[in-house]
C-alpha cells in the first residue's frame, strides 16, 4: 500500500469519527442565515443568553431538526425531554445535556447544537444617527464600525459628541465613555473605543 493510499484512508476514517461521534457540536456561532453576530468566535467560548436562537438537530436514530429561542427564564423546551437550562452555558454543554437525557429513551443519540442567531449580545445606538436602534455585537466591533452599521451620522451629528454608556459589572457604577471619533477617523486607533454587549451609544448635535 503506497503512501498516497494510506493518507486517503486516514482522512476518511477521521471524517467518520467526527460526524458519527455522539453529541458532536461546535462552540462558535453558525453563519448560515444569521447576521455576522458575535461573539469572539475562535477566541473564547460563546455563552448562550436569553433570546438567542439555537438550531438543534438529532441525526440519529431518527432525524429531527428544530429551531428554538431561549426563553426569558434561560431555558428551551425540547421534544421528549422537556425544559433544558441553557443560559450561560456553552453550546457543547447544552448538546451534552440533551444527548445525555435523550440517551434514556433512545440508543446512542447523535445531536448537533449550533447558534443560528445571537440576540442576547447587542448594543444600542441613539441620537443623531441615520438608523437608531439595536444591533448585534460583532467580533472586534469599535465605535466607528458601530456608527457605520447604523448608517452613519445625520447632518446634525457631531463626531465630538459621541458617548458610550456602559453598565457597571459586579455592582460597580455605570461608565460614561467619551469617544473622540474625529481623532479615530484621522488614524488614532486608540481613540476608537470598543463596543461591548449592552453598551448604549449616543450621538448628540454639534454646536454650529
Task: Describe the protein's architecture and organization.
It is elongated and about 70 Å long. Helices cover 20% and strands 29% of the residues. The chain is built from four helices and ten strands; from the N terminus they run H-E-E-E-E-H-E-E-E-H-E-E-H-E. The chain has two domains: 3-117, wza like domain (wza like fold, 2-Layer Sandwich); 122-205, Outer membrane lipoprotein wza domain like (Outer membrane lipoprotein wza fold like). The strands form three sheets. Strands 7-6-10-8-9 form a five-stranded mixed β-sheet, covered by helices on one side. It has a three-stranded antiparallel β-sheet with strand order 2-1-5, with helices on one face. The longest helix is centred in the N-terminal third of the chain and has 18 residues, at 3-20. The protein is an alpha+beta fold.
The CATH topology name of the largest domain reads wza like fold
Say what oligomer this is: single chain
N-to-C series of helices and strands: HEEEEHEEEHEEHE
Main CATH class of the largest domain: Alpha Beta
Uncertain segments: 7-21, 30-43
Would you identify the CATH H-level superfamily of the largest domain?
wza like domain
Mean pLDDT, rounded to whole units? 80
- How many domains comprise the coordinates? 2
What structural class do the secondary elements suggest?
Answer: alpha+beta
Strand order of the largest sheet: 7-6-10-8-9
Outline type: elongated
For the termini, the CA-CA separation is 80 Å
Tell me roughly what share of residues is in helical segments: 10-25%
Q: In the CATH classification, which architecture of the largest domain applies?
A: 2-Layer Sandwich
Largest sheet: 5 strands, mixed
Name the beta content range. 25-35%
Query: Helix tally?
Result: 4
Give the number of DSSP strands: 10
Estimated radius of gyration: 22 Å
